[in-house]
Automatic annotation (TrEMBL):
<dbReference type="Pfam" id="PF22725">
    <property type="entry name" value="GFO_IDH_MocA_C3"/>
</dbReference>
<dbReference type="GO" id="GO:0016491">
    <property type="term" value="F:oxidoreductase activity"/>
</dbReference>
<dbReference type="InterPro" id="IPR000683">
    <property type="entry name" value="Gfo/Idh/MocA-like_OxRdtase_N"/>
</dbReference>
<feature type="compositionally biased region" description="Polar residues">
    <location>
        <begin position="9"/>
        <end position="19"/>
    </location>
</feature>
<feature type="domain" description="Gfo/Idh/MocA-like oxidoreductase N-terminal">
    <location>
        <begin position="26"/>
        <end position="148"/>
    </location>
</feature>
<dbReference type="InterPro" id="IPR036291">
    <property type="entry name" value="NAD(P)-bd_dom_sf"/>
</dbReference>
<feature type="region of interest" description="Disordered">
    <location>
        <begin position="1"/>
        <end position="26"/>
    </location>
</feature>
<protein>
    <submittedName>
        <fullName>Oxidoreductase</fullName>
    </submittedName>
</protein>
<dbReference type="InterPro" id="IPR055170">
    <property type="entry name" value="GFO_IDH_MocA-like_dom"/>
</dbReference>
<feature type="domain" description="GFO/IDH/MocA-like oxidoreductase">
    <location>
        <begin position="160"/>
        <end position="274"/>
    </location>
</feature>
<dbReference type="GO" id="GO:0000166">
    <property type="term" value="F:nucleotide binding"/>
</dbReference>
<keyword id="KW-0520">NAD</keyword>
<comment type="similarity">
    <text>Belongs to the Gfo/Idh/MocA family.</text>
</comment>
<keyword id="KW-0560">Oxidoreductase</keyword>
<dbReference type="Pfam" id="PF01408">
    <property type="entry name" value="GFO_IDH_MocA"/>
</dbReference>
<dbReference type="InterPro" id="IPR050984">
    <property type="entry name" value="Gfo/Idh/MocA_domain"/>
</dbReference>
Length: 359
């Protein structure tokens, strides 16, 4: 059976340095001053055609401090009932906004940004559920703005190359895929990762990455069986997903906030096997073995912390007036959120945002 894999996954990776400018400079706004905002902004500063224009926070002191540290020209904060992100969205000089809040706020922040007519890059997981995801996509389509989920790994040369190898036939017919991501997250009740109100749990935080592997090599599955362990708040501490395909192929995904996993992806075909080396999110190498032949390993350098590649893609797409990325299209985020809704139904995980969706 031939399965449709998006063309862009199979094309050779452009070897141009991702810092190379692709058009007019864009003014970036950043919503939130937390962990990933700090990391991604450092990579954003490496793009000559990106200007660190404005940042927003719930708190004025945090916004000001962040702006000073990274050299943003303007800063916004919640004021008199108006959220800082809403003020940032209305800034007439902002071209594109990066949303780096916890998952549960992605929908409301991205909606405000799109309604203000601005382009937007939303952290993963895209939203809490498929209902929110569909609303954002419909709104972006109606307003003609760019919208993308920040699945940065999908743009890395190593992962592009892995999918290219799987699609080339070098492994024969791909028959099964496994992918694991796990680390023990500190049991801090303030940590968004454990909080039901923040959209916590292994699924929305980690499975976004493991799912890339079966999707990039076999497409979205036809069936799914999930097992999970829930904490006292009802979010999944770890989960195992078994994916099935009508052609007989299988995939298993493991995501854990309790255990150190091997953090390895394996793509097994009738003639060969590919294994990641040095982490599943940002592999430093790919090990390929055909039959009983000696294995070869391809090594990869990465620019910055690896976020430069997705930031280049957003920049290029906005400069070219595209509404979505051909490599990370809306259909991927919508299918992912539908699949996650199905997993949560099997595990019994519900978030406060789901109540709004069911009204
Ligand atoms: N791409 C990646 O590699 C990667 C890595 C880690 C996380 N992420 C994603 O990025 C998002 C943020 O994760 P993070 O680790 O940066 O989280 P974090 O360190 O907790 O920071 C989140 C920030 O969001 C803001 N915020 C807005 N509304 C909030 C609310 N109601 N409660 C708490 N914070 C709120 C806060 O900034 P202010 O106080 O300034 O408002 C906070 O510092 C998540 O969706 C996560 O999945 C992506």
């Amino acid at each position: 059976m031939t399965r449709h894999i998006e063309r862009s996954w199979l094309s050779s990776q452009d070897s141009t340095d991702p810092r190379t400018p692709t058009g007019r400079p864009l003014n970036w706004g950043v919503v939130a001053t937390g962990g990933i905002a700090r990391t991604v902004v450092r990579d954003l500063a490496m793009l000559p055609d990106a200007t660190l224009h404005a940042v927003s926070s719930r708190f004025a002191d945090r916004a000001e401090e962040f702006a000073r540290e990274f050299g943003f020209r303007r800063h916004y904060a919640d004021d008199g009932g108006v959220p800082g992100y809403a003020a940032l969205a209305q800034d007439p000089d902002v071209d594109v906004v990066y949303v780096a809040t916890p998952h549960a706020q992605h929908y409301e922040v991205a909606k405000a940004v799109i309604e203000a007519g601005k382009n937007v890059l939303v952290e993963k997981a895209f939203t809490i559920n498929a209902h929110e995801a569909q609303e954002l996509v419909d709104l972006a389509r109606a307003r003609g703005v760019f919208l993308m989920e920040a699945v940065w790994s999908r743009f890395l040369p190593s992962i592009q190359r892995a999918f290219e190898i799987a699609g080339s036939g070098e492994l024969g017919d791909v028959q099964w895929v496994s992918a694991d991501l796990g680390f023990p997250a500190p049991k801090d009740p303030m940590n968004r990762i454990w909080a039901v109100g923040a959209g916590g749990g292994a699924l929305l935080d980690l499975t976004v990455y493991t799912l890339l592997w079966p999707v990039g090599t076999l497409g979205f599955p036809d069936s799914l069986t999930a097992l999970g362990t829930l904490n006292a708040e009802g979010v999944d501490e770890q989960n195992i997903l078994a994916l099935g395909y009508s052609g007989g192929q299988l995939a298993t995904l493991t995501s854990s906030l309790l255990a150190q996993g091997p953090r390895v992806a394996t793509v097994a075909g009738s003639e060969g096997v590919l294994t990641t080396v040095g982490g599943i999110n940002n592999p430093s190498g790919l090990r390929v073995q055909r039959g009983w032949d000696p294995a070869r390993t391809e090594a990869f350098d990465v620019v910055g912390r690896g976020y430069v590649y997705e930031l280049r893609e957003v920049t290029r797409c906005v400069q070219q007036g595209l509404a979505q990325s051909p490599t990370m299209p809306w259909s991927h985020s919508l299918s992912t959120m539908r699949l996650f809704d199905g997993v949560r139904q099997q595990l019994g995980v519900r978030y406060p945002n789901d109540e709004r969706a069911s009204r």
